[in-house]
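Q: Here's a chain of 299 amino acids. Please give me its 3D structure as tokens.
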Amino acid sequence: MPTLFVGHGTHYLLFFEKERIVKTLSLVLFLSLFLPAHALAEDPFGNKKLNIPPRGFTALFNGKDLDGWWGLATTPYEKYRDLALEEFEELKKTSREDIAKHWRVENGELINDGHGLYLTTNEFYADFELLLQYKTVPKADSGVYLRGIPQVQIWDTTEEGGKWGIGADKGSGGLWNNAQGSPGKDPLVHADKPFGQWNDLRVVMVGQEVSVWLNGKLVVDDAVLANFFNRDNPIPDDGPIQLQTHGGEIRWRNIFIREIGPDISLPGSALAKKSVNRWTSRCRRRAVRLFGSGPCRFR
């Protein structure tokens, strides 16, 4: 098998040896350039069985009750991550009294009345692909917090909703708390369905960067999610998924997640790993978008 070296002058780093890896990378690059993101991906919302996850995914909502969730507001992560285990469990227990008042399950749908704490996963997630469907009503405002950070925006995008002045006319799916004019702040296209219809939301998060599809249309393309709680720092490496709701009833169903594992395992120095880290993260996101998995694993 041929061996591939990259480096500068006489300082070379051995990255990998197998010819098939080179061929795989070439294929990914070719497809990235010449095929749309959905061309090879399996339809993530093609399963007609309610709340049954697609292959490789785990259901966050079981379709029957609120098991696996607790309640949290827009809360700086230090206030719950730094708690002792006993205190954290007590916080969860108390919060469930609130969510029981405002969240309910009917016919396999998760329903919030527009009030109360936001439904929050027990588990923390790092890199992931998230799928869900939601249905909203006039005047309602909602969103999805990633690693406990707001947010992928969901709202009433009609003129009657009264929020065109702050960007609602551009549609849902944007990273609302990013700075004005920064990538991801506004969705690339308006993709919302009319009231009464279910919207399909897909989010891929790797590192600090997020891509969002709404109803099959790319609305955020590899944008860094700003840290709402501390603009000078990156967001945490992991955290919960939160379903934010206020202003009106929101219904959710088919909430699935797939964790994206480490993308690289290289022999050799830390310098070799550092030198390819940014490239492999982008390769990994592109691979998930094309194939539904990340083939950028080198040994």
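Q: Can you summarize the key feature?
A: The longest strand covers residues 250-259.
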